[in-house]
Write a structure and sequence with these properties.
Elements (H helix, E strand, L loop, with lengths): L9 H15 L9 H4 L14 H13 L12 H12 L10 H18 L1 H13 L2
Helix pairs in contact: 1-4, 3-5, 3-6, 4-5, 5-6
């Protein structure tokens, strides 16, 4: 998904958005994997509305948890794309956030995905739903 024809990934992002929308609508089958087998591909990200600074702070805290001075793993382009499409853009407050806030949150969510996979998504969802 990282070799978009236009050189900046826009084709990749549009393709990913269409594919993910088809999965969520039940029009296509998601790939096999932990999220699929656990039934955790939700129809949209169901968390309560919140200011970007609160969501970013929670994602950052979880992403850095347990690193204790070790380097934070750098997310790949696919991690960033999935974080943006499946979580950041699906947050109920996303329309009120600036592009800079969305980019920052995308980075931290992508680190969570890189470090913890689906468990990172579940940790963030729980923290945002239940509280910090």
């Amino acid at each position: 998904m990282t070799d978009g024809r236009d050189g900046n990934g826009q084709d990749d992002e549009a393709t990913a958005r269409r594919l993910i929308a088809a999965w969520l609508a039940g029009e296509a089958e998601p790939p096999a994997g932990p999220a699929r087998s656990a039934g955790t591909l939700p129809p949209g990200w169901t968390v309560p509305p919140a200011p970007a600074r609160d969501v970013v702070g929670t994602a950052r805290r979880l992403a850095l948890d347990g690193l204790a001075g070790r380097a934070c793993p750098a997310p790949g382009a696919d991690d960033l794309l999935l974080a943006r499409v499946l979580m950041v853009d699906e947050h109920p407050s996303a329309a009120a956030w600036t592009e800079e806030e969305r980019v920052e949150l995308t980075g931290w969510v992508a680190v969570l995905v890189r470090r913890f996979g689906e468990d990172g998504v579940q940790q963030l969802t729980a923290a945002l739903t239940v509280g910090r």
